[in-house]
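Quick one: structure for this chain?
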Amino acid sequence: MKNKKCILVSACLLGENCKYNGGNNYNQAVIDFVADKDVLAVCPEVAGRLPVPREPVEILKGRPCDVNGNFYDKEFQVGIDHTLSSLAEKNIDLAILQSRSPSCGVNQIYDGHFSSRKIEGSGLLGKFVAQRSTNLVKKIF
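Got it. Here's what it folds into:
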């Protein structure tokens, strides 16, 4: 049913251990904010069948690439397609996405050279969500 409003949230912010290093980005303010709301928690990287833990990935010239130079276009596309399929069934009116992530990043991502340098840009899902004009929480609480 598509009538009820829903919030799209990066699963790592809700405490799911889906980060590349096996950890999460648990954020109590996000938990409190969504406590009484319908939530769609997503991790496109896990949905794309990438393991946890896994090598870190950054966006290099628009493509997801790990520190060893391996590209993960197919896995990221599978994960994003899965997420988009889930989105089609929901009435998403807000997205709270993890900053700097190669999939969920909003406004800022790493530079693609594993230098810890951040640049302006979005992850692959973050870019799609922004283009869809869903309201994004640009900074985490």
